[in-house]
Structure formats: structure tokens, C-alpha cells
């Protein structure tokens, strides 16, 4: 019996020729990441372990991105803890405000993750880097602490679900619609403890931005990781962003999959996940008139340049509905600058949207767009749990940048076709 | 042996309702416990007694990787969580911080709010003292048993993994 892509990467990092699903292994880590919410707790545990130094100062990444720029005194104190630790440990990849971005957009952009890597991050959306053909998964603060101290982590080798993609997505259909469709199909625990592996000729019509979005939301199906087969599009991205050595792993032909889904990208239409679970996915033939008060375009799911370009294409020459607050958040400084150079930011501001510095803020109800009781938001983020974006009686509808931009204009949940006739 | 009164919840209890992100500007366990379950069950913090056991449906702890979630539950005095299934990061985090958890679909479905339940972690048995029924939970692999016996990952790392001191 052969191995899946994930199993091969894990085997190589555990110094084994072969691993099987269910096996417990100790794997060497290429990168350990944490943010301003999770790293302070990890640093405390790191010290409790008696560790004096991180295993490799080039392989620990600290990104203050959640409640930054500091939203209150307590958040400022949390950030101070990681800043001082970064100084003390001489951490090469600490990204201060002005350099930082939303971690899962920033790390690939900085070339810190390449195909074949094993990465843990104390953030559930660490699975994003699977888009690059790496094994990456979210862990808690104590795992991060152990990773920083030892350079290793324990894993149970996962089973896998295979998604074979074909066809081309239609106009206004993006990776977000594809992953929402998949989560709607398999459910929020449909891939529990498993890998989601993507392959097939349809990959050729998915940009890296689409793939990052899809890998990012693997956790929303309960998966351990999402991973894409490496192709020319991946390698082009890697060459442009990184000079790290990389290794391409391909699943064996006889690898075992618990389930195999064949997905025709041309059959997918714009989708929206209704409150309060990402699996409550509806297409526009199932959506009645739902007025909204806020739109968020950004986050580790959809704050990349490709996302902003689509949103700008729709908002150009339109005005944001006067009853809607539209908040656009480029995910990194580089994306911000590029969006400025391309005139995208001007389009947003002309339309009546606000443009924020990179932050995770509104996605988790931190700051920069918290919802009041009874308010509804269309958001390009990844979770719509009770109270996720603010008051426990507010509602979050998850959608693509195209749907979010169209909804900002109409003031209700709208398909891009409604405004781009 | 753990024994306590049951507080019961449904499926997909996510980490945002276990501890809302608006309280994540601290990692102090007592402060976190003061807001535990607030958005799902505002009565939780007033009615929870030391030793109580949470029984829930599938995918308990889904969502964010925040270790603040099992920590808030532990600091609330909960002695054990029994669920049909756990989300994987929550599962790791609970073991890593020494909060006992057990996967047992049958027990999770049959045990009711307010029942008194006894849990034997060593042999994986769950006894509903109210109904008299006994269940067998999935056992932990030897590695995880070692982790649990060590008292969590911090102690385990100290003992086994060779920290760079």
C-alpha cells in the first residue's frame, strides 16, 4: 500500500521509510509560528519546560497580527511579551507593525514555507500553507512551546480524503466558492483528523490565491491539513518568493484514501455560508433578500492581491450602500502597497469603503469592525460561529470577495451578477 | 477516579463560544474561566461546581487553536469532558494541558443533563451513577498515556524530549 502526499512528507521528517495512518510519530519541524494571542502563552510554557534557547532562531516565526495595532492595554502587554522574547532569543523572523501582515498571507509571501516542509503554527489556519505542497497544521500554545524548544512535534499520521478537480470555474467563481461548496458537502467534521488532498487537471485553473483560500479552510471541515499537488503554478510562486530548498512529494498511485470526490469546477456557482456554521452553504437560488449592515473584505482567507482586484473590479464606479460599513483589509504591507500602486485602494475609498492596515481584527470580533446586537455582515473570512464578529446575537455570512463587494453595493446579500450586468 | 454532575451540550461546540475572542487579550486562567461558555450558556459560570463533567455531541472544540479554551474549562472546575468526537486541535490541547477527555459516542448520547457520572481514566470506563449504565471509552495509545501520566506536554518534554537548556 502506498502513501499519500501528507504521509510521505511526515515519513521523511520522522526519518522513516514508511508510515501508516494512525501511527504516532515524532517529526522534525521546518518552521514553528505563533501570534500575539497564542505566543504569550507558549512563551510561558517554553520557560516552564526549562528551555533556554529556541531550537533554531531562523525557524521560529512570531507575528503580532490579531489585536494589532494594539487595540487595548492588555493586547499591548501581550505584544510586548513576544517582542521581548524575540529580542531575547534573537528571532530572525519577528515581524513588527510596519513589516507585519496577517500571518498566513505573510509567511508564504516572505518565502518562509516551501513545498515538502513540515510546519506547525499556534493558529488553526496554519493549514493554509498546504497550498504550497507543504504539511502544515494548527496546534495550541503548549505544542508551539515544545516545538520551539525541541524542533519536533508528535503527530498521528492522518488518513486522507482525495478531491480530484476538473474543469474551469465560471466568471465570479473563486477558490472561496469551491471550498464553501466542499464544506457544505462534507460538513464541519467531514474531514475530522484527516488530510484533504487536492489533485487533478482542474488545479491548472486555480491561482495560488485560490489555493491558499481553499487550504486555509480545511480546518473548517475538521481536517488536520489541506494539501495541493505541486505543479508549475506552485513552482513559479516558490521561485518568485523563496530561495529555500524545497522538495516535491507526490502521492503514490496506490495510496489509500478513505473517500474520493470528483469535482467539476465549472459546475460551481457563487456560494454563501449562513450562520452559525461554515457548512450551512447556500447558492443564490436558495437565498432570499437579506439586508446587511457590514462587509469585510480581507483576512488570512481572502485578503490577498487577487481578492482585492476582484473586489475593486466590482466596486469600481459604484458606491457602497449608505446603510453598509464596508471594510477592506489588505493582508500584508506588500499587498497594501501593490494595491495602492494598482489604484485599487483609490477605487475602494471612492466607493465609500474604508481601507485598514493589515490585522485579523474583525474576523474574530477583536477590533476594526465589531458587530452590534442583531447586525449582519457579509465577510470573506472563515468562521461564522455565534459571536464570532461581535455580539452573540449578530450574524456572519461567509462569502467570496466578489459576493462581498456586490453585497456592499446593494446592502443585501447579492451575487456579483446582480451588479455587473 | 473522577465523579461529578453532568452539564450537557450538543454538537459542534466551538472555541469561540467556549471562550469568545474578545477575552483573549489575557492568558490568565481565572479571568478566562469567568467568561467560559458565555455565548452558548450564560448560566454556566454560575452553576458549574468543581468536579462537574461536560458531556457533548460531535466535534467538540471545533474552530480556533486557542489553548485558552480547554484552559478556561479546566479553570472553571470541570474534571473531564466526554464527547462523541473532539476537534483535533482541541483534543491535542486538552491532553497537553492535562484536562482529561474521553471519546465515547454511546455515553455522549445517553447521559443526560444533571446525571451523576463516574469516570475511571486508567481503564477508560464511564459509569452513569444515575441510570446505572456503564460504557467503555476509546483507549489512549501508549504514547498518549505516557503524556497524560506525565501531567501534560510540559512535563513530558522535560522528561523525554531533551530540551536545549
Structure description:
The complex is a heterodimer of chains A (421) and B (165). With 421 residues, chain A is of the alpha/beta class. Chain A has 14 helices and 18 strands. Chain A has helices at residues 5-13, 39-48, 73-89, 103-109, 141-150, 175-186, 208-216, 232-241, 299-302, 305-315, 333-341, 344-351, 401-410, 416-419; strands at 24-28, 31-35, 60-63, 93-94, 118-121, 135-138, 152-156, 160-166, 195-199, 225-228, 259-264, 271-273, 281-283, 294-297, 325-328, 354-355, 376-379, 395-398. Chain A has a 5-stranded parallel beta sheet. A 5-stranded parallel beta sheet of chain A has the order 16-15-14-17-18. In chain A, strands 10-9-8-11 form a 4-stranded parallel beta sheet, with helices on one face. Chain A is globular and about 55 Å long. Chain A starts with a helix and ends with a helix. The mean pLDDT of chain A is 98. With 165 residues, chain B is of the alpha/beta class. Helices cover 33% and strands 18% of the residues of chain B. Chain B contains 8 helices and 7 strands. Chain B has helices at 15-18, 29-33, 44-47, 68-75, 88-97, 105-110, 142-150, 153-161, and strands at 2-8, 53-56, 80-83, 101-103, 116-120, 125-128, 134-136. Chain B has a 7-stranded mixed beta sheet. In chain B, strand 6 and strand 7 form a beta hairpin. In chain B, helix 7 packs across helix 8 (153-161). Chain B is globular, with a radius of gyration of 15 Å. Chain B starts with a strand and ends with a helix. At the A-B interface, helix 2, helix 3 and helix 5 of A face helix 5 and helix 8 of B.
Amino acid at each position: 500500500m502506498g502513501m499519500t502526499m501528507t504521509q510521505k512528507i511526515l515519513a521523511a521528517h520522522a526519518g522513516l521509510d514508511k508510515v501508516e495512518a494512525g501511527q504516532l510519530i515524532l517529526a522534525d519541524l521546518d518552521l514553528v509560528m505563533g501570534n500575539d494571542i497564542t505566543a504569550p502563552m507558549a512563551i510561558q510554557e517554553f520557560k516552564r519546560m526549562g528551555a533556554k534557547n529556541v531550537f533554531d532562531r531562523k525557524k521560529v516565526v512570531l507575528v503580532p497580527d490579531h489585536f494589532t495595532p494594539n487595540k487595548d492595554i492588555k493586547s499591548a502587554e501581550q505584544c510586548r511579551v513576544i517582542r521581548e522574547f524575540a529580542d531575547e532569543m534573537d528571532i530572525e523572523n519577528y515581524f513588527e507593525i510596519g513589516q507585519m501582515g496577517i500571518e498566513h498571507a505573510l509567511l508564504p509571501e516572505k518565502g518562509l514555507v516551501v513545498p515538502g516542509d513540515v510546519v506547525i503554527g499556534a493558529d488553526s489556519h496554519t493549514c493554509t500553507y498546504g497550498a504550497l505542497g507543504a504539511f502544515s497544521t494548527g496546534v495550541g500554545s503548549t505544542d508551539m512551546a515544545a516545538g520551539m524548544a525541541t524542533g519536533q512535534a508528535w503527530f498521528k499520521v492522518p488518513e486522507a480524503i482525495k478531491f480530484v478537480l476538473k474543469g474551469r470555474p465560471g466568471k465570479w467563481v473563486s477558490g472561496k466558492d469551491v471550498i464553501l461548496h466542499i464544506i457544505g458537502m462534507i460538513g464541519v467534521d467531514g474531514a475530522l483528523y484527516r488530510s484533504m488532498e487536492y489533485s487533478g487537471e482542474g488545479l491548472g485553473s486555480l491561482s495560488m490565491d485560490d489555493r491558499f483560500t481553499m487550504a486555509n479552510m480545511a480546518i473548517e471541515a475538521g481536517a488536520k491539513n489541506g494539501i495541493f499537488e505541486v505543479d508549475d503554478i506552485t513552482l513559479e510562486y516558490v521561485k518568485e518568493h523563496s530561495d529555500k530548498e524545497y522538495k516535491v512529494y507526490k502521492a503514490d498511485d496506490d495510496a489509500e484514501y478513505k473517500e474520493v470526490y470528483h469535482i467539476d469546477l465549472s459546475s460551481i456557482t457563487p456560494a454563501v455560508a449562513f450562520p452559525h456554521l461554515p457548512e450551512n452553504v447556500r447558492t443564490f437560488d436558495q437565498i432570499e433578500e437579506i439586508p446587511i449592515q457590514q462587509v469585510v473584505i480581507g483576512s488570512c482567507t481572502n485578503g490577498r492581491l487577487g481578492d482585492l482586484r476582484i473586489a475593486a473590479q466590482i466596486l469600481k464606479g459604484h458606491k457602497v450602500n449608505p446603510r453598509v460599513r464596508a471594510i477592506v483589509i489588505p493582508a500584508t504591507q506588500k499587498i497594501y502597497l501593490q494595491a495602492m500602486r494598482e489604484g485599487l485602494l483609490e477605487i475602494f475609498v471612492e466607493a465609500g469603503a474604508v481601507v485598514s492596515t493589515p490585522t485579523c481584527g474583525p474576523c474574530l470580533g477583536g477590533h476594526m469592525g465589531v458587530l452590534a446586537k442583531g447586525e449582519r455582515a457579509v465577510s470573506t473570512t472563515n468562521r461564522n460561529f455565534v459571536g464570532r464578529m461581535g455580539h452573540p446575537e449578530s450574524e456572519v455570512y461567509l462569502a467570496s470577495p466578489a459576493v462581498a463587494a456586490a453585497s456592499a453595493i446593494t446592502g443585501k446579500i447579492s451575487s456579483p451578477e446582480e451588479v455587473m450586468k | 477516579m473522577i465523579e461529578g454532575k453532568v452539564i450537557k451540550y450538543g454538537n459542534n461546540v466551538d472555541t469561540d463560544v467556549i471562550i469568545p475572542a474578545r477575552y483573549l487579550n489575557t492568558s490568565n486562567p481565572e479571568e478566562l474561566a469567568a467568561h467560559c461558555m458565555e455565548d452558548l450558556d450564560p448560566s454556566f459560570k454560575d452553576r458549574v461546581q468543581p468536579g462537574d463533567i461536560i458531556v457533548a455531541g460531535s466535534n467538540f472544540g471545533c474552530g480556533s487553536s486557542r489553548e485558552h479554551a480547554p484552559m478556561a474549562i479546566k479553570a472553571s472546575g470541570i474534571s473531564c469532558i466526554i464527547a462523541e468526537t473532539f476537534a483535533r486541535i482541541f483534543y491535542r490541547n486538552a491532553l497537553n494541558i492535562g484536562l482529561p477527555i474521553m471519546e465515547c459516542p454511546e455515553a455522549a448520547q445517553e447521559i443526560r443533563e444533571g446525571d451523576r457520572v463516574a469516570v475511571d481514566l486508567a481503564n477508560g470506563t464511564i459509569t452513569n451513577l444515575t441510570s446505572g449504565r456503564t460504557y467503555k471509552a476509546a483507549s489512549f495509545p501508549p504514547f498518549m498515556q505516557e503524556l497524560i501520566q506525565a501531567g501534560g506536554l510540559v512535563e513530558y518534554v522535560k522528561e523525554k524530549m531533551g530540551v536545549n537548556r
